[in-house]
Amino acid sequence: MSDLLQRLCRRLDYQFKNPALLTQALTHRSFGAQNNERLEFLGDGLINFVIGAELYDKQIRAEEGALSRLRASLVREETMALIGRELELGEVLHLGESELKSGGYRRDSILADALEAVIGAVFLDTGFDAARKVTLHVYAAFLSNLPDHETLKDAKTRLQEVLQAQSRALPVYEVLSESGPPHKREFVVRCSLSDAVETTQSAGPSRRIAQQRAAAMMLEKLSENAHA
Amino acid sequence: MSDLLQRLCRRLDYQFKNPALLTQALTHRSFGAQNNERLEFLGDGLINFVIGAELYDKQIRAEEGALSRLRASLVREETMALIGRELELGEVLHLGESELKSGGYRRDSILADALEAVIGAVFLDTGFDAARKVTLHVYAAFLSNLPDHETLKDAKTRLQEVLQAQSRALPVYEVLSESGPPHKREFVVRCSLSDAVETTQSAGPSRRIAQQRAAAMMLEKLSENAHA
């Protein structure tokens, strides 16, 4: 095993019995047929379950919705890519020529997939308990510093809750325009309150995203007014 | 423990050390605060991982996409509700008054959630290995009779693959109309092939669903033509 791989194993706090599994976990599909896609599938499910079970255990008062939002924030690509970067997975990835040239070793999706595959490889190498231990080890910083699950709610949900708490009517979202070619649509959405003159307006590549942005702007407006 | 609960445990091939966990798993939120929602969160992740790992193990030639589709078909609400019905979970559920009256014990979502919660309860009661064993036990019939993963592909994907295999151009989807109030939109979509006169047309509550339906109709048309 190379020095770089040995360093990775120290960072994972895990020694592979079968190092070929680790090599496969670090092989992107652009490199060849013996790649990490199936291991990624395995690791994805494992991380999802282990992180969920840990949150269940630690957040004894959190309801199901809060647990789901917390888990989603921890298992999303962005978070996994951060962990992949800390482990310096980019330096030990096997990438095909074109991915190498285009800087694939820096890409979030490739780093996140490799992290999942490495965890899947640990599971195959030794079993569930070892894979759980490695998962909790690489996630330690995130698990000890969880975000407030309220802030993880999407803007439309938060806006609705804020208005309901004040016994006000629900916001109305209207699509003002829809334009652009099929693969690059742009939606412009207006959010308005029936009991106030405030409106906000935002654009996005889908109706849903444009609505969320308009809701976020309305939330800000409401909080500015409250503090004015 | 009641006779009905004992029968359930025999069907699960599992005896609870702490029967209170089973009772909680069978308690719907309409019944009270001590309900099965958190256990459901736990069991959902466990089933997802265990079924995925089993497919990984058994389907050694399946690619990641095929594994994902197979898993999705096994962990969807409909399948879980079938298993819940075989276990006769409906007879041992604790439901609130209104759910009882409206026949909640027959509803897919409530049965599927209860199955997830029961598996979550086994995990808390004894640990991962026991919960895995119970999961594979209740899923045995489905796992020994897996659908062909090709048929699980959505219609747009299959249509694209059929056309690519014949070196033909990709289908074009157009929204012909969009109508109805916000909570009950209807989209009419046309699917056409640039190299043929055939078009199909379908409606649905979202653009995506209308497209899938139009693609399914086009697939049927192509297969009729091929057999004509």
Automatic annotation (TrEMBL), chains A, B:
It comes from the Bacteria. Keywords: Cytoplasm, Endonuclease, Hydrolase, Magnesium, Metal-binding, mRNA processing, Nuclease, RNA-binding, rRNA processing, rRNA-binding, tRNA processing. It is an enzyme of class 3 (hydrolase). Residues 154-224 form the DRBM domain. The active site is at 44, 116. HAMAP family: RNase_III. This is Ribonuclease 3. It comes from Stenotrophobium rhamnosiphilum.
